[in-house]
Automatic annotation (TrEMBL):
Protein name: SPRY domain-containing protein 7
CDD domains for the chain: SPRYD7 (cd12880)
InterPro entries named in the record: B30.2/SPRY (IPR001870), B30.2/SPRY_sf (IPR043136), ConA-like_dom_sf (IPR013320), SPRY_dom (IPR003877), SPRYD7 (IPR035766)
Lineage: Eukaryota, Metazoa, Chordata, Craniata, Vertebrata
Domain B30.2/SPRY: 1-183
A Pfam family hit: SPRY
Gene3D superfamilies listed in its UniProt record: 2.60.120.920
Amino acid sequence: MAAVFPCCVACCGDGGAGHAPLKEMPTVQLDTQHMGTDVVIVKSGRRICGTGACLANAPLHQNKSYFEFKIQSTGVWGIGVATQKVNLNQVPLGRDSHSLVLRHDGSIYHNNEEKNRLPANSLPQEGDIVGVTYDHVELNLYLNGKNMHCPASGIRGTVFPIVYVDDSAIIDSQFSDFYHTPPEGFEKIMFEQQIF
């Protein structure tokens, strides 16, 4: 046994010749390369404040994705999915074909059309967790783990999670280690190389 250990250290333990270091998988977070000019991203790419929108750094390639947002401070805000063609300086989103979002007033907008609305008395408040599922057809919303039964669809192309804020709103994104268990069949966002 003692002879085996030096061999392991010599072959792969010291990073010497022939050693290929493992590539660390990237973390899904808000993307400072794709945010509005008056947006501030803090807390290791998890918190958004200021005015404008920010995309996540990973597209939704897998069949069924789940992610969450926590309302830290109310104001004007929206969450959902968008393509990279969305105007990140224009709030509220949902005015064109490049975004599908839940707005702070409970309406879900895409292409300047209200696609659905949260049930009465179900507006997210400070401290609430809004879960989002997306399966390349339909976006569904969960409030503190409860299905709101208000699906919306219509967006086409490669989409990313998106969040926007204005009027003192502060939102935290959660792309793993969720507050609530994802619905059956849905999972955290994976980078394309993690899927295969």
